[in-house]
């Protein structure tokens, strides 16, 4: 895709030369000219929440993408407005905080074989959303979207079909172009039960085929990492910023415990440690990540449920505190948030869990100041808020409930 005005596309030869001379960070800054982050005081405490809407597959009760305001003292939320959109399964903000990208699991792009991605401009005054355009996600049921640190591309994980897509950002408008790179993952099927599965867990993850669940760049932007929950694999590529194409890394795939269903990931330790939450067995698997080669070396496996827990559960989200000291995991069916302390060497220690005061906590988010955590209780139709103890990382319920139909994902303006 062509870049606007003063940002010409880079060929591979000039990209390599520029990167070696100025470093990847400088190259990214060049790509984002005219769209630098701007901090607006009025944006403090504002967040967007994606919700499932009524339909035969999701049976949601929400209306689309909700804009909410957080009380900076108490952490309680209030609804500002809602932008109608079918099944907003994930939302992500660009670096400038001027554009929001939202996935829809519905086939709203007149493509029976794909979901869609919609770009919205954010009004600088009231932060309401104005639609820019909608494009195909490439495959059905898109479930995760992230913005590459360069500001040039968005990365999409499509659950059905087990594929990933790279879509170019049109810098004149912040809108999106059609996918310029797509890839599906294939490998032998695994059993639905992991050996480390909690006793009596009848809420099985889908292992009938590839099920790509998350994709994002490492903090440097040099590599892209995705997890395939259906095939129990982590995939790693480098990215060619001039084309948006992904190139398999030196070790392009790692297989995890069969049946474990890796779902989401987060980077810690300045991008040198990768934590992956596995949905089926509620385990965080930790890896040393080499920012030069993209290679992953496993070093720890830690359970996130109480020692004697038995019964059905599906882990969902994993987030890390802004200071990098604590890790939080949502537990669907168990209806809890697990709290893990991160040691100096990156190892984890399960120290606490907190009832979410809701049902089926899917996504969760921490405000930019690291004071509060919010649980999106999908089946309880509410978002609950918790104060984070800065010393222990433990959570205490604020008493705040936001009634909201089928909330599943939350992203803060900062």
Outline the structure in words.
It comes from Lichenicola cladoniae. It holds the Pfam family Lactonase. Residues 188-210 are annotated as: Disordered. The protein has helices at 12-22, 24-31; strands at 46-51, 64-70, 77-84, 88-93, 99-104, 116-122, 129-136, 142-147, 153-158, 163-170, 175-176, 181-184, 212-217, 223-228, 233-239, 246-255, 262-268, 273-278, 283-289, 296-303, 314-320, 326-332, 336-342, 348-355, 361-366, 372-377, 382-388, 395-403, 407-412. The longest helix has 11 residues, at 12-22. Helices cover 5% and strands 47% of the residues. The two termini are 29 Å apart. Residues 1-41 have low confidence and may be disordered. It has a domain at 43-314 and 399-412: Methylamine Dehydrogenase, Chain H, CATH 2.130.10.10. The strands form seven sheets. Strands 8, 9, 10, 11 and 12 form a five-stranded antiparallel β-sheet that branches. The chain has a four-stranded antiparallel β-sheet with strand order 3-2-1-29, with no helix packed on it. The chain has a four-stranded antiparallel β-sheet with strand order 4-5-6-7, with no helix packed on it. It is mainly beta and 414 residues long.
């Amino acid at each position: 895709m062509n870049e606007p005005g003063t940002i010409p596309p880079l060929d591979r030869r000039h990209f390599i030369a520029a990167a070696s001379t100025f470093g990847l960070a400088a190259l990214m800054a060049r790509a984002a000219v005219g769209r630098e982050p701007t901090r607006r005081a009025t944006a403090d405490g504002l967040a967007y929440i994606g919700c499932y809407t009524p339909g035969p597959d999701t049976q949601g009760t929400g209306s689309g993408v909700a804009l909410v305001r957080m009380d900076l003292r108490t952490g309680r939320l209030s609804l500002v407005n809602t932008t109608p959109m079918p099944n907003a399964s994930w939302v992500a903000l660009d670096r400038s905080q001027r554009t929001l990208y939202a996935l829809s699991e519905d086939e709203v792009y007149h493509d029976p074989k794909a979901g869609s991605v919609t770009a919205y401009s954010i009004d600088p005054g009231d932060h309401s959303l104005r639609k820019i355009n909608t494009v195909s996600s490439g495959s059905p049921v898109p479930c995760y979207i992230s913005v590459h640190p360069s500001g040039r591309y968005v990365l999409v994980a499509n659950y059905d079909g087990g594929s990933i897509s790279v879509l170019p950002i049109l810098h004149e408008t912040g809108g999106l172009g059609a996918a310029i790179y797509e890839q599906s993952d294939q490998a032998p099927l695994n059993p639905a039960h992991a050996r480390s599965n909690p006793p009596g867990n009848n809420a099985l993850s889908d292992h009938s085929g590839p099920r790509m669940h998350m994709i994002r760049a490492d903090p440097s932007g040099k590599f892209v990492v995705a997890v395939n929950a259906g095939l129990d694999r982590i995939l790693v590529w480098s990215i060619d910023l001039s084309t948006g194409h992904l190139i398999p890394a030196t070790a392009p795939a790692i297989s995890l415990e069969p049946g474990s269903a890796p779902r989401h990931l987060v980077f810690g330790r300045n991008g040198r440690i990768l934590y992956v939450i596995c949905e089926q067995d509620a385990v965080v698997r930790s890896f040393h990540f080499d920012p030069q080669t993209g290679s992953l070396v496993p070093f720890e496996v830690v359970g996130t449920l109480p020692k004697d827990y038995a019964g059905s559960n599906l882990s969902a989200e994993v987030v890390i505190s802004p200071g990098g000291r604590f890790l939080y995991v949502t537990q669907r069916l168990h209806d809890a948030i697990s709290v893990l302390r991160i040691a100096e060497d990156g190892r984890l220690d399960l120290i606490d869990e907190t009832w979410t005061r809701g049902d089926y906590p899917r996504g969760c988010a921490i405000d930019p100041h690291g004071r509060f955590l919010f649980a999106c209780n999908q089946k309880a139709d509410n978002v609950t808020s918790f104060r984070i103890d800065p010393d222990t990382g433990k959570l205490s319920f604020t008493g705040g409930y936001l009634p909201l139909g089928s909330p599943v994902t939350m992203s803060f303006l900062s």
